[in-house]
Amino acid sequence: MSRRRVRSTPPPRRRLFHQPLLIGATLGGAVVVAGIIAWALLSTALRPAPTSTGGCRGTPAFTANAAIVPAELGLAGQLALATDRPEKGLTLSALGTTLLPYQHPSWDDAGFLGGIAYDQAGNIYAAPTPRLSLADNPLAGQATIWRVASASADMRPFVTVPGAATARNPYGIMSLTYVCGLERLYAGTVLGATPTEERGGVVMIDPATGEQTATLTGFDVLSVLIVETGQGYELYAGLARRPEVIAVALDARGQAREAPRLLLDLTQAGASASERARKLQVAGGMLLVDLVPFNYSLQSSASDLPQVRRAVWAWDTRAWVAQQGAAAQTGP
Question: Hey, what CATH topology would domain 35-59+105-322 get?
Fold first, then answer.
């Protein structure tokens, strides 16, 4: 699919696609990101910049429970949930310390994980994402979203979305995002895609019931984000087959009310033909896009490092301001 901070005193997130999630802070500068493109929306200068729909997200209750999380870890300061460490599954670490990460016994049941999101109650949603092989992530599990209970930290299967991974396309759910105003979870997928046909899309899920609704079909989606524009909700989707981000206006129920339109051509910001938007985020009136080479292959996806492409859409001149350069690459 990031990190969130958590306070050390009560009361109070795979290496390739999604970074750790810091509990209790914005999804911003605390995360060392592989590659970022930043710009404002492609819209008129008078239109409000998009805003985040994730402000209600809650802190998982188990992070303040000494009966679950070791006391020395909980008191060490800044905690981070991560799926990009060498350990399989989800881990909880104290940043800036040498303490071993905490891992609930159920957190490796789904194999290696990718995208994670969480709701206002602090429940965490995670999706399996294979790394170099399918040994720990069999094809049959790629369409299942798992949920970590906020109170108990127990991780169990939550819902299975339509579609199936195949030997030629072993990927499934590529990104997750939770929308506070709608109280809905959105999943971007490439499930069932073939060399000649895009069969993925975006599925909207009710966390209370597990009910699913197709919001976008016919597109393989690597990243998904829902924003508030001042005129309602919009869905942004980073495509898996082209260096593009598309936008879809949503109605009050979170369903598409207009046909998809091109929002960003990433090549205009310096992206190569093989780079894709693997993560989308809004912060400070800017749209942040992380890039990674992607071609549905485990081998190339696991070995290629994201390239840095940074650009800003200038509101006053309505033009791209290129800022390309290298950024530090840390972590696995």
Answer: Neuraminidase (2.120.10)
